[in-house]
Amino acid sequence: MKKLICSILLLLATFVNAQKKDSLPLNIEDYIVVKKGDTLTIDLDEFSIIPKHQFSSSKDARYYYWFRSKVHKAYPYAKLASQRLDTLNSRLQRIKSKRKRRKYTRRAQKYLEGEFTDQLKKMTRTEGRILIKLIHRQTGKTAYQNIRKLRSGWKAFWYNTSANLFKLSLKSEYHPESINEDYLIEDVLFRAFQNETLEAQRTKLSFDFPKLAAKNKGKVDVEEYKLMFSKMKKKRKKKSSKK
């Protein structure tokens, strides 16, 4: 035992004496990592620059930031739904028995409903519409298609019918290249990902937003929301006048 301890101490002593002593360089040039004639290579993350927003008025800017808050609220749920569905699908592929697959799907479906239902009830119609579109963005399938896969087509039909009562369609798709609202959603997400105010998750759809933004030159169209609020004000006036 004593021989083993002596050997270890001797090894440690040899290791310590072999170390190069830490000392300050005598010459300032020794601090310079890259010297004249050297080639410096730096790996940078891909970063796309998009045009600065062009608002027609301060009122338009307020509408945009109002809309941005709706996207920020809806996005985490779409991101979470995508993660849950990816997990569900990967596990289903490993289950060979049809009976076990059905049992696992029912359990996962109940879990998803329990996780999302209470939060979704608190959403406004605009937030619900954005969420439905974002589910298509994140999963590559519409909310209707996802429900149809988890449950029967009949259930998906009734889910869509109930959503229509609130003027929402679970069959809504996401097309930022052709639909203004979808373009605005993607604009909000792209900037939030770059600013790291939202955690980025790749879309499962195919489009090139920087190209779309360059073509649009930063213009922001919020006319549909102005019209929406105008209609809401008129309805409120009618209700108050009847009272």
From TrEMBL:
UniProt keyword list: Signal
InterPro entries per the UniProt record, alphabetical: DUF4294
Pfam families the record matches: DUF4294
Keyword Signal annotated: yes
Domain of life: Bacteria
Keyword Signal: yes
Span of the signal peptide: 1-18
Listed name of the protein: DUF4294 domain-containing protein
Taxon lineage: Bacteria, Pseudomonadati, Bacteroidota, Flavobacteriia, Flavobacteriales
